[in-house]
Write a structure and sequence with these properties.
Structural class: alpha/beta
Order of helices and strands: EHEHEHEHEHEHEHEEEEEEEHHEHHH
Strand order of the largest sheet: 14-13-12-11-7-10-9-8-15
Helix content: 25-40%
Low-confidence stretches: 392-433
Distance between the termini: 15 Å
Mean pLDDT: 83
Strand content: 15-25%
Shape: globular
């Protein structure tokens, strides 16, 4: 595929190198600071530099856009890349507010292209293994600990920009959807350079605790499961991404250890993108139906839904710190049935108020009483539409709907597994066909 890179964010540059290293893709265009172009050239990648975004998106041979620009222009470039009907990968966070991510999901639903966040940590084999243990052992508590040599917050060097917390995708992948969080900080805001502690509760009832400590002598990334038979801990002793070690106890109580050497996390995201492109072409979605891939689905797969949830959790964390109390996430399911019932409730309440007003006024103007007949007639007609118009075969969850609950059986496959029963060929075989 022919790819354009927008911006010089470190994640975007490394992802571009991973695309080229696969031998199946080409970085065709680059738009951004000179430092980013120099980085690509040091890795023997020579895209054509273009200053104007519209000129980049006007290329008829362009297939994919990597949005890795400065946070101040990232939302606008994400929107335009989607409107140009290209596949898009956007670095995290897409924006401090989840509103931009909601809009991006709606545009993606209309264009039918692939939209993924650059969040590769859940594709690491150690995290995949830990998620398998979590589904088999039903953890009571999930703990995340992140140490950093500098600041632990994302985009903390940007002036007047609300920073984001890392690790939401890993917590959700291991424990499921998060329903409530409470952030404790030394001041009433999520400030750079300050330690942070987040406690909360998953929708399933499990508890979580995340600790973020900046300005440490050594980097560390660790996630643990507290189960009935002990503790399972995945540690990146040199920080993410580095060598990883998993310590856990099996069902018999015997201690087990698994280890992985330091690896480049971005080739796994390239493979996930290729799988999503093939899957998007094979699955027939109705126009306007967003992709439902998520790390908390019965068959987990990284998708834009995970970016939405991460931004919602960032927003909830900032509210919690500001108000000094827990923040609850409203994860409502949006289906055809639920939408119809909500609309009818609104219409019914409006009808009651109008009827009361008409009854009062009819004491002075008797003929107004007959307006009640068409009011109730319209309401009953709307109710009849539910039986006249056939419902869809499957309920469609929109981008702000809650995903399906994660099963507790070990049969659930990790994100690297096939997401459907339809055999998925490689992207090269599909393209040749």
């Amino acid at each position: 595929m022919r790819i354009a890179l927008l911006g010089d964010h470190r994640d975007g540059l490394e992802l571009a190198c991973a695309f080229v290293a696969s031998g199946r893709h080409e970085i065709r265009l680059y738009s951004g600071p000179v430092s980013g172009l120099a980085y690509l050239q040091r890795h023997n990648i020579t895209p054509r530099p273009i200053g104007d975004l519209e000129e980049v998106l006007a290329d008829p041979d362009l297939d994919v856009v990597i949005v890795a620009s400065n946070p101040s222009v990232r939302p606008a470039q994400l929107r335009r890349a989607l409107q140009a009907e290209c596949h898009v990968i956007c670095v995290h966070p897409a924006d401090p507010s989840p509103d931009v991510a909601y809009e991006a999901a709606m545009i993606q639903a209309d264009t039918g292209r692939v939209l993924l966040p650059a969040l590769p940590i859940t594709l690491h084999p150690g995290v995949l293994r830990l998620a398998e243990l979590a589904r088999a052992a039903e953890p009571r508590l999930v703990e995340l600990e992140v140490w950093s040599r500098d600041d632990v917050l994302l985009e903390s060097n940007q002036v007047d920009l609300k920073p984001s917390l890392p690790g939401w995708d890993a917590l959700r992948y291991v424990g499921g959807e998060i329903g409530e969080i409470y952030l404790q900080a030394s001041q009433a805001e999520v400030a750079p350079g300050e330690p942070l502690v987040v406690v909360g509760r998953f929708v399933s009832g499990r508890l979580l605790q995340a600790t973020y400590v900046p300005n440490q002598a050594n980097a560390l990334w660790r996630i643990s499961l507290v189960t009935a038979v002990g503790r399972a801990t995945l540690s990146f002793a040199e920080g993410w991404p580095g060598p990883a070690t998993l310590h856990y106890a099996d069902e018999a109580g015997a201690s087990k250890t698994e280890a992985w050497e330091a690896m480049n996390p971005w080739p796994a995201l390239v493979e996930r993108f290729e799988e999503a492109v093939v899957d998007q072409s094979l699955r027939k979605r109705q126009p306007g139906q967003p992709a439902d891939d998520s790390l908390t689905m019965p068959v987990p797969a990284l998708g834009w839904h995970d970016e939405l949830r991460a931004l919602e959790l960032d927003d909830a964390s900032r509210r919690s710190a500001e108000h000094g109390r827990g923040s609850t996430l409203d994860l409502q399911e949006t289906t055809e049935e639920a939408t119809f019932k909500g609309t009818m409730t609104l219409v019914g309440c409006t009808l009651i108020w109008l009827s009361a007003i008409v009854l009062i006024l009819s004491a002075w103007v008797p003929w107004l009483f007959w307006f009640l007949v068409p009011l109730f007639g319209v309401f009953l007609t709307l109710q009849a539409l539910r039986w006249v118009v056939p419902p869809q075969l499957e309920s469609v969850r929109d981008t702000v709907g809650a995903p399906q609950p994660t099963p507790s059986t070990p049969d659930a496959r990790p994100a690297a597994a096939t997401k459907s029963e339809t055999p998925v060929t490689s992207i090269r075989e599909h393209r040749d066909a």
